[in-house]
Amino acid sequence: MRAFLIGVMMVWGLPVAAERERVPLSVKEALRMRASAGAPGFANRADWMALTYYLQGVIEGAVVHARMPGAAGSFCPVPNAHYDLGSVFVALEGVDPSQQDEPVAKYVLEVLAQRYPCAD
């Protein structure tokens, strides 16, 4: 009976928890994670790894979308280009503090548009 109740709680509780977690990663949070990356502790390293994988996923997703036939994007990926996170963090550090609650993905796309503009 106890296992059944735990199972029911998990089935009903997970969708509610998932709905609460659908908040895009903000610039402020990304900068906080980067700042704490050098601090000792497993949690800090785990946050750093999660952040880099998240940003890599945003970049790769945008590149795949931009390469799709007929896709109109704000940048044109270069074949065999190496997309580095250094330029992303430089851009994030330059974001006005009043705008740091905005999604970090927005600024990642702006960096890609600046570095890889489409020829008109």
Spell out the blueprint of helices and strands.
Blueprint: H1 2-20, H2 27-35, H3 42-67, H4 86-93, H5 104-115
Helix pairs in contact: 3-5, 4-5
Number of strands: 0
Low-confidence stretches: none
* Shape descriptor: globular
> Helix/strand/pairing class, anyone?
mainly alpha
C-alpha-based Rg, rounded: 18 Å
* Beta-strand residue fraction: under 5%
Q: What is the oligomer described by this structure?
A: single chain
Q: The biggest beta sheet, please?
A: none
Number of helices: 5
Question: How would you spell out the order of helices and strands?
Answer: HHHHH
Between the first and last Cα atoms, what is the distance in angstroms?
Answer: 67 Å
Mean pLDDT: 80
Notes on the structure:
This protein is mainly α. 62% of the residues lie in helices and 0% in strands. Helix 3 (42-67) crosses helix 5 and helix 4 crosses helix 5 (104-115). It is globular, with a radius of gyration of 18 Å. The termini are far apart. The mean pLDDT is 80.
Summarize it.
The chain has helices spanning 2-20, 27-35, 42-67, 86-93, 104-115. It is mainly α and 120 residues long.
Main traits of this protein?
mainly alpha, 120 residues
